[in-house]
Amino acid sequence: MTAERFRIGFLPLVDAALPxxxxxxxxxxxxxxxxxxxxxxxxxxVRDRLLYGHTDAAHMIAPLAIATALGRxxxxxPLAVPFVLGLNGNAVTFxxxxxxxxxxxxxxxxxxxxxxxxxxVAATRKAAGKPLRFGVVHRYSSHNYMLRYWLAGVGVRPDxxxxxxVTSPPFAADALAAGEVDGICVGEPxxxxxxxRGVGHIALATAQIWRRGVEKVLAMRExxxxxxxxxxxxxxxxxxxxxxxFVARRTAEESADILARPEYLDASRDAVLRAxxxxxxxxxxxxxxxxxxxxxxxxEAANFPWRSQAAWLYSQMVRWxxxxxxxxxxxxAAAVFRPDxxxxxxxxxxxxxxxxxxxxxxxxxxxxxxxxxxxxLMLGSxxxxxxxxxxxxxxxxxxxxxx
Amino acid sequence: xxxxxxxxxxxxxxxxxxxxxxxxLDDLVLIDPAGPLVAQVExxxxxxxxxxxxxxxxxxxxxxFAMSRALAxxxxxxxxxxxxxxxxxxxxxxxxxxxxxxxxxxxxxxxVELAVRRFQAFSRLQRELDDAKxxxxxxxxxxxxxxxxxxxxxxxxxAAYALLRGQAMRTNRRISEIAEAIVTSEALxxxxx
Lengths: 403, 193
Hints:
The structure holds 2 protein chains of 2 kinds. Chain A is an alpha/beta fold. The mean pLDDT of chain A is 95. In chain A, the strands form 6 sheets. In chain A, strands 2-1-3-11-4 form a 5-stranded mixed beta sheet, sandwiched between helices. In chain A, strands 8-7-9-6-10 form a 5-stranded mixed beta sheet. Chain A is built from 17 helices and 18 strands. Chain A has 3 domains: 4-87 and 214-277 and 293-340, Periplasmic binding protein-like II (D-Maltodextrin-Binding Protein, domain 2); 90-212, D-Maltodextrin-Binding Protein, domain 2 (3-Layer(aba) Sandwich); 354-401, no CATH class. Chain A has helices spanning 17-24, 27-30, 43-51, 62-70, 96-102, 111-127, 142-153, 169-177, 190-196, 222-227, 229-246, 252-259, 269-276, 307-321, 327-336, 339-346, 395-401; strands spanning 4-10, 33-39, 57-61, 79-84, 87-88, 90-95, 133-136, 163-166, 183-187, 200-205, 216-221, 279-280, 289-290, 295-296, 353-354, 368-370, 372-374, 377-379. Chain B has 2 domains: 3-127, D-Maltodextrin-Binding Protein, domain 2 (3-Layer(aba) Sandwich), CATH 3.40.190; 131-189, Arc Repressor Mutant, subunit A, CATH 1.10.10. Chain B has 7 helices and 5 strands. The A-B interface holds A 40-45, 48-49, 51-54, 72-75, 137-139, 165-168, 170-171 and B 53-63, 65-66, 76-77, 79-81, 87-88, 91-92, 96.
């Protein structure tokens, strides 16, 4: 049997781990799949290669997959997300000057308290005609939406009280050092690298803003799923096996060795290892502290593409792009996530499979058993920092209540 | 029609602008890759932007275009279903194009096609240059190996070359590989006598 070949585009980030490990550690080969990884430096290039067939699948920021399917900025191309590559794993990092002004400590603080202090600084800077500026990795990124959700929630209006610009992750530390931005919201290892270089101070993990926030996804052209259904399912099983391996504590060192290599992240092995093991060095010279679920994988069916996650991202697109809620768009956005493919791929594997395809996001305070068609599914707290919950069936009401 | 060219390779940028000028498109702005990108593009007010696909500033640039929706003539993405073939060819060649809204397709198409041809020409040139460099390096190694053989075996140059060639043919390897092996072993064991 010749292996089914998948070229997978990725950016050098820790959460590109699953396709990389599936390839390196033989999980793909075991499923009869060959993975060829294509490294790029911008999401625009990752997207273009996917749309024009240079790649078969891509490690992608979830909102970009939805924006592409909705035809924001370009003609729409139907994309499908059958697998989530990870939850959270990002952080908000301030320049050392802003960290001093806000009074950040040596631990991850309370989002509301940091927000209150930030509001004062933001007002002073705006009055002085030099508003605070934050860098996010892409307009259609969860980083942008998480940062905006937090800022708006603490009374700092994005675009009017502070500026938000795009800064590519590998250049984020440089931008902080040069004073081009006062803060960044990027994925690991780039926050840690800014701290290690002495130019940044981590203010918050995005997991503090939304405990179970959807992050990178595996995106494909919809036609690929239709034409290569069996191979796609084999690929998902390989990624799921890689995820099970990745979360085992004993594998962290080996995973960091592989990911840090020049052909993948080409980054500090130590910074990668900290991200994998949920340890965060908050300030330059400080000792790494443990923050549980900094980056979340595998457990609680974390790789399952909940349609409600796609719906939340769409709600934020409506909110910040000011495009107006449209039921048709909402349906298109939610349908990008394909729990049906995930279930089909993992049926019979023993992996917990949620019975529902959509859920109330941010509704759980503590772990609870959830309905499943296979295996035993537990879901942990998935709170937003402000305690709001998102009902995917009533996006308009949710939007009306947001600040 | 003003065209801005953004390229991490200044040589390639020059090759593209030469091509456009020859085609009578001489309202060109070359963006300095070392300077502030968005400010330069904003000041240039281009109707078409050509950028190399792998340019690390593309996300930044696309964000600026998205923000420019508020402007009188916003820059949109070129990618259009009816032009998927042209765009696909552009992506294959490694070039990406953006145009202002409302610019007619007939005017854009030749620009993109020309850019594609120039990108391909640049790749070809680079390949030729690499080949030439390799050939030069090979020549140098072969000359060195010949000199070693002439000294050790006390033969003249044609005989030394014949030795190399004979060994290459017998072992089904390239002459340069044999020469490299000789030079390496001479470096390691040359003064053992």
